Structure formats: C-alpha cells, structure tokens
Amino acid sequence: MAYDYDTDALGQLVGRMRALPADRRLEALKRAVIEHGGRWDLPSEKPGVYNPVLVSAQVFGVCAFAESIDELHINWLRAAENALAWEDREDADRQMPAVRESR
To answer: What is the rounded CA–CA span in Å between residue 47 and residue 91?
Structure first.
C-alpha cells in the first residue's frame, strides 16, 4: 500500500530534528508545519483559552498525537521514522522479484 509521503522532505526534517537538542525539537516541528502547510492542534499560549484533550501535528503526510505538548515532537519523530522505514520496505519489496513456492 502506498502512502502520500514526501520522503525526501520528511527524511531531511527528521535528520534536522534529530540533530537538535531535545528542547528545540518542538519549535522545529512547529516551524515545519508553518513553512510547509501542515496542521496542528495545540493549546493556546494564553492559559485557559484553549487546551485540547490531545495535541497533534501533521506535516509531509505524517500525523502524530500526544497527551501533552512536551510529548508531541517525540511521537511525531517516531511516526515519521516509521513512515520512512515503511517506505524503504515498500521500495525493497517492489525491487525484489516475487518468489513462488513449489509444491
């Protein structure tokens, strides 16, 4: 099954985020959402104005959820790395000839 991931851009963002200290990764994710037309559902910076039950971020076709904003970049990176690994596996499957069992 093929998914609509921009694997080049996704791989670059994952690499950039992994190179950053953990306390700067959420800002990098927010910046990527803004710059590349992603989506998010984050609490308001003003306390008490808006606080969703789950926070989320989606960019380059990868969406992740978390119970707290501090966990969001961790979950998004995990989802992005899973998506890249799946795409690598799909590419390998497409390149490998089908093997039939002989009976």
So the answer is: 46
- pLDDT tens digits, 2-43: 556 688 999 999 999 999 999 999 999 999 999 999 999 998
Residue type, 87: E
Instruction: Check: CB of residue 15 under 8 Å from CB of residue 80.
Output: no
Helices in the chain by DSSP H: which ranges? 7-19, 22-35, 69-95
Q: Is this structure's pTM higher than 0.85?
A: no
Alpha carbons 23 and 70: distance in angstroms, whole number: 9
Residue showing tokens 């093997």: 99
User: Does residue 58 surpass a pLDDT of 80?
Assistant: yes
| 2, burial (CB in 10 Å: exposed 0-12, middle 13-18, buried 19+) | exposed
Instruction: Tell which residue, 49, 57, 47, 54, has the closest CA to residue 26.
Output: 57
What are the residue boundaries of the structural domains of the chain, listed by start? 7-94
